[in-house]
Design a protein that fits this description.
Layout (H helix, E strand, L loop, with lengths): L1 E4 L2 E7 L9 E6 L8 H10 L2 H9 L9 E5 L7 E6 L10 H18 L4 E4 L11 H18 L5 E6 L2 H14 L10
Parallel strand pairs: 2-7, 3-5, 3-6, 6-7
Antiparallel strand pairs: 1-2, 4-5
Helix pairs in contact: 3-4, 4-5
Bound molecules: ligand AR6.
């Protein structure tokens, strides 16, 4: 599923983000940047030890929740990994939506700063951090749409959803946010 926003492409794919052939992929990291399961485990496994070595050297204090930091991508097809720290879901009254939006926004800013034309994003916080998928989809997509309405880059933003349930939640949220003009429509 895909839509155009001010001439740039916003896409939804189902699959494994580590296989994406884009300039940058986003990791669902923790604030210690210590590695873990889910997306984080897959990225370090497939990307090799260089990613963790660079993370430890450049970001010994980790990364605050709601932000992101960049490294090279080791053996992955991408050029960069942006390690984003989403919030742990705590019921929705602890600023989770703002923190989640901040993590996505920072990734898009990093893409601009690193000259990336394409970026792949996972559904941050929706695994180990238990953020409800439909709410996370609305926050993630509305943050990307707002960014693309204000910035000339990146040309391609692709959400890579791991399973059919996640894909369905993002597809429904995208239709809701774009007024049902997707797929192939224009915002
Ligand atoms: N490609 C795309 N999406 C994936 C993949 C993959 N290879 N693997 C899992 N997902 P999670 P979080 C989906 O747990 O909730 C880690 O231990 C998954 O189904 O990776 O932000 C970190 O070190 C889910 O929908 O990230 C942190 O401690 C989504 O990606 C903590 O988990 C995010 O799940 C971060 O938790």
């Amino acid at each position: 599923m895909q839509t155009q926003i001010h001439g740039r492409t916003l896409e939804l794919h189902q699959g494994d983000i580590t296989l994406e052939q884009v300039d940058a992929i986003v990791n669902a990291a923790n604030s210690r940047l210590a590695g873990g399961g889910g997306v984080d485990g897959a990225i370090h496994r497939r990307g090799g030890p260089a990613i963790m070595e660079e993370t430890n050297r450049r970001y010994p204090d980790g990364c605050p929740t709601g932000a992101a930091v960049a490294t090279a991508a080791g053996e992955l097809p991408a050029k960069y990994v942006f390690h984003a720290v989403g919030p742990v879901w705590a019921g929705g009254q602890r600023g989770e939506a703002d923190l989640l939006a901040g993590a996505y926004r920072r990734c898009l800013e990093l893409a601009v700063e690193h000259g990336c034309r394409s970026i792949a994003l996972p559904a941050l916080s929706t695994g180990a951090y238990r953020y409800p998928m439909d709410q996370a989809a609305r926050v993630g997509l509305s943050t990307v749409i707002a960014f693309l309405q204000e910035h000339a880059q990146p040309d391609l933003v692709r959400f890579v959803l791991f399973d059919p349930g996640a894909y369905g939640a993002f597809a429904a949220a995208l239709e809701e946010l774009t007024g049902g003009v997707s797929p192939g429509g224009t915002v």
